[in-house]
Amino acid sequence: MIRAIYPGSFDPVTLGHMDIAERALCVADELVIGVLNNSKKTSLFSAEERVKMLQDTLGIKHSNIRVEAFTGLTVDFARKVNADIIIRGLRAVTDYEYELQMAQMNYKLLPDVETIFLMANIKYAFLSSSVIKEVALYGGDITNFVPPVVAERLREKF
Ligand code: ADP
Q: Catalytic one among 9, 43, 88, 91?
């Protein structure tokens, strides 16, 4: 049984994140989505709100996906949940340098756990949580880019 983690900020979850999580089930039997609760990074939604939105979308749809908040290092979270692999998504070359550095550092810290990258679906390659928040802030229509529960929560925030 292969257990994967998919760590990230998910502030908030987009259809791009959902696509990566669902495709990760092709390589993993079980996926634990790790919502990073980073005190140094200001987020629009609290870790609890981000976990809830992921549970209400991916968690409800797939019995083999669960969602947990974590603080600190990804490798410690991977150890805690006994993960075999770390899943990350790549949208464009701009993601590559940072992702490569993180993957190499994580490999040094925890060589038993391999990072696997999934290429963004072309439909969602332009999507990021920050762009969604900016469009939502100025009243733009984000309903094609996030699940309905997230669109509703963004409407409440702004
Ligand atoms: P982080 O702050 O850790 O980058 P994000 O929530 O922004 O957290 O992203 C989590 C992971 O999902 C990253 O690997 C990122 O590259 C990937 N990702 C984000 N948006 C998309 C998308 N639209 N398509 C594919 N992968 C994505």
A: 91
Domain ranges of the chain: 3-157
Q: Which of 9, 10, 17, 19 to mutate to test the pocket of ligand 1 (most atoms within 8 A of CB)?
A: 17
Once rounded to an integer, what is the mean pLDDT over residues 100-116? 98
Q: What is the pLDDT of residues 115-132, one digit of tens each?
A: 999 999 999 999 999 999
Instruction: Specify the CATH architecture of the domain 3-157.
Output: 3-Layer(aba) Sandwich (3.40)
Rounded to an integer, what is the distance from CA 50 to the centroid of its chain?
Answer: 10
The whole-number average pLDDT for the span 59-65 is: 97
pTM: 0.96
Whether residue 8 contacts residue 20, with contact meaning beta carbons closer than 8 Å, is answered with no
Taking the C-alpha atoms of residue 112 and residue 59, their distance in angstroms, rounded to an integer, is 27
